[in-house]
Design goal:
Its cofactor is Zn(2+). The chain is built from 5 helices and 6 strands. The protein is an alpha+beta fold.
Length: 151
Amino acid sequence: MRCPYCGFRESKVVDSRPADEGSSIRRRRECLSCEKRFTTYETVESLPMVVIKKDGSRQSFDRSKILRGIQRSCEKRPVPVADMERMASEIEQEVQNSLEREVSTEIIGEKVMEKLKKADEVAYVRFASVYRQFKDINTFMSELNKLLSEK
């Protein structure tokens, strides 16, 4: 951190404490050259995530849409709500951790199917049938056969 008084690049932290209800950290620093003190604030940089839809339009990432899709697929299935929440959180975290600020709905859909396949096969097939827009029974059966062959 550069000293605001002399411009020296080295300083030491004298005191550190939470600020803004824990969303940032207030630090008191002392310049190692002129020995004057100054305050800095450290916050997490949050960049907005944008989702690219199939038609090319863009919208802000919304975790609740992922959770709703998972919940619809798991309706009347023995999948605990906590597991559905965990799946949505893991997908959100994976998307946020990627270096890209834009993600396609295809990538998100594949991540949802990957999580559902491990949690409940019927929920997986339900989601896949809507997501992949199965046109007829043959497409549906080929997906079921793939699932059976993986066992």
